[in-house]
Each structure stands twice: as structure tokens, then as C-alpha cells.
Amino acid sequence: MSQREWIEKDFYKDLGVSSDASADEIKRAYRKLARDLHPDANQGDPKAEERFKSVSEAHAVLSDPAKRKEYDEARRLFASGGFGPGAGYTTRPGGFNGGFDLGDLFGGGAGGATGGDGGLGDIFGGLFNRGGRTAGSTRPRRGSDVETETTLEFREAAQGVTVPLRLTSPSPCTTCHGSGAKPGTSPRVCPRCNGTGVVTRNQGAFGFSEPCDDCRGTGSIIDDPCPDCHGNGVANRTRTITVRVPSGVSDGTRIRLAGQGEAGLRGAPSGDLYVTVHVRPDKVFGRNGDDLTVVVPVSYGELVLGTTISVPTLDGRVGVKIPAGTADGRVLRVRGRGVPKRDGGAGDLLVTVKVAVPQKLDDPATEALQAYLKAEKTSGFDPRAGWAGV
């Protein structure tokens, strides 16, 4: 909705109440209209739907005492200034006739830095969340966020590790501790803006706030700047910080370290540091969520007869029993031996058994295998029975 439409809105008329209606009267009027105009009761009626939106909008403003007060103040302000519907607006005789740009009042014009003491941006900013800069927003801003990366081994990422990171970025000056003033001195409150960072200039019936030129909107003046940071409170330096990477992080995980980013000017809060973690693949292990996966080579005889094999884990080895008659490719689950979880538990270890076929056999092994195949056939076993319609 445009600024002009906000100005011309009559929320009292939308609810059918007077401008001095009590809170109870506003509530009763809204409930009745909302019930009559609700879309469920007027399906396919666009006019009723639009009316319902207008009523809801009016109630949202008039039912809130603070918003209602600001809305009433804005209406009185424009009424006293001669603003009214039409192609152009006049604030006073001989001023801003015809082509007056409402954007100037809301911070859109070149000279319309709103906020501070009595500017229109204060009224409409609080009421419609459209306000321009306020006194506080002209103060030194929080430092920028910083991003960096680190690469971990698979097992480090799974188990958690503390890694050092070397960064070069704007940081609080170690000489003045971020104040911007020479050691032994302190910034003083700007006498022109009284520390608000903004000054108000009058233009007719209205007051407009803008950043103070004397303190450049910071609210303070440094008479004797720090020789190392030249009054900014920030200096580029190389530092090493330790980052605790929690257990179970996966490739691409982003870790946030509050306050470890770029320093703000003159003691303003620092930004955050975001560390993107990359994980190198492991030759033995894989991951499936919190489960640790491993493929173990076994012999055909171990699957047929059954056995117990030793399998590696993140913190040692564990014995895994292979039942007799286990099929090639079967997955055996070992509870609680997977990737550690942040709640103190752990995923499972998923062991896939895979037959390793010997590339060459000596004569005794060949003769034994031929004898086995003959016995297998005699017993009636056919590995392709029922396969492909056979």
C-alpha cells in the first residue's frame, strides 16, 4: 500500500465507529463485521473478501492503543497541515504546491532522513513498520560477518575435534580496546546532538532528523584519536582462534561463532564467524546419517559355515558374528557403534559382507573345490533354480 493510501485511510469509518469510540465499541464492531464478512460465509464474493481485509486491517491498528495513538496523531497532523485527497498536497501557503513528493516525508527524498525527534518517519515508522532511520540506527553498526572454511578427516568429523583457525580480518584495536580514543582518554558526548547521533531541522510545520555532521552520526566525538586505528576502534590483524567442531558433523556443515567476525566501529558489537566444514572421504568407512557403514571382505566358506570376524570401528574393533548360510551382500547391524550424536548416543555400525573371490588356486585347493562342486550338484543344489524362468 502506498504512503498516500495510508494517509487517506479512515479506519474508524471502515469499522463504522466514531473517532472517540471506546476499545469495547471497536471490539464489538469488528466482531460483528468479521462474522458477517468472513470468506467462509461469502464464498465467491470478492467484494466481501476485500471488505473483510479492510475491516481486519482497521481492527489491527485501532485495537492496539499505541498504534491507535500514532494513527490519530498522524491524522491530526495532516489535517492541520492542509493535506487532503487530490493530485497534489500543500503544506503551507506558497510551499510544496502541486508536485509534493510524499517520499520526502518518509525518507525517500534526498533531504528526508527521517527519525529522531518528531519527524514523520517516527509516526509512520512505528505505525506501519515503514520508518526510516532512528536515532539509534545512526550509531556505529555491528561488524560484518566473516566466513571461512576448514577441512577435516572423516574420523575427526565423526568424533569431534578442536581445530585452530588463522584469520586476518578487522578486529577490535588492541591499543584502545575498540573505543577509538588514545589510551588514557575517552570519547566525549557530542554537544550538538547530545549523543543521539541526529539533529533536527525545521521546515515549516515539520521537523526532519538527519545524521549529525559534527560526530558523523556516532553520538560521540574523539578529540585525541588512537594512533594505531586512527579513531575507528578497528584494526586489521591476524589472529588464531580455536573452534570446537562437534561430533557427527557432515560435509558442508556451517558452524556459527557469535562475536568472532569483523569488529564494529568504535566499540560496536562484532559480527559473527561462519565456518564451513568440509570432510575428506575415508578409505574404510562411509556414512548414512548417524550410521557408520563398512564393507568387509569374506570368503565363500565363511558365509556358508558361519564365523565371527573382527570389524574396525571409530574407537577400536568389534567382533561381528556371521550366521551360517549368510548371503553375499547381507548387512549386519551392530547397535551403538556408529557416529556419535550430540545428545550423547550414537548411530549403528552397518556391516556389509562381500565375498572375495580368489584369483588363483593351487592344485590342492582346486581339487578340493572341484570335489565340492561335484558334491553340491549331487545334493541337488542349483544356484540358478527359479532364476529367469528356469
From TrEMBL:
Domain J as annotated: residue spans: 10-75
Q: Where along this sequence does the record place binding of Zn(2+) 2? A: 190, 193, 212, 215
UniProt: Zn(2+) 1 binding residues:
173, 176, 226, 229
Q: Where in the cell is it found?
A: Cytoplasm
Q: Which GO terms describe its molecular function?
A: ATP binding; heat shock protein binding; unfolded protein binding; zinc ion binding
Report domain CR-type positions.
Answer: 160-238
GO terms under cellular component = cytoplasm
Gene Ontology biological process terms in this record: DNA replication; protein refolding; response to heat
Q: Which cofactor is recorded for it?
A: Zn(2+)
User: What transmembrane ranges does the database entry give?
Assistant: none
The annotation note on the cofactor reads: Binds 2 Zn(2+) ions per monomer.
Highest taxon above the source species: Bacteria
* Family affiliation: Belongs to the DnaJ family.
Q: How does it assemble?
A: Homodimer.
Its recorded name reads: Chaperone protein DnaJ
Lineage, highest ranks first:
Bacteria, Bacillati, Actinomycetota, Actinomycetes, Mycobacteriales
Q: Which gene encodes it?
A: dnaJ
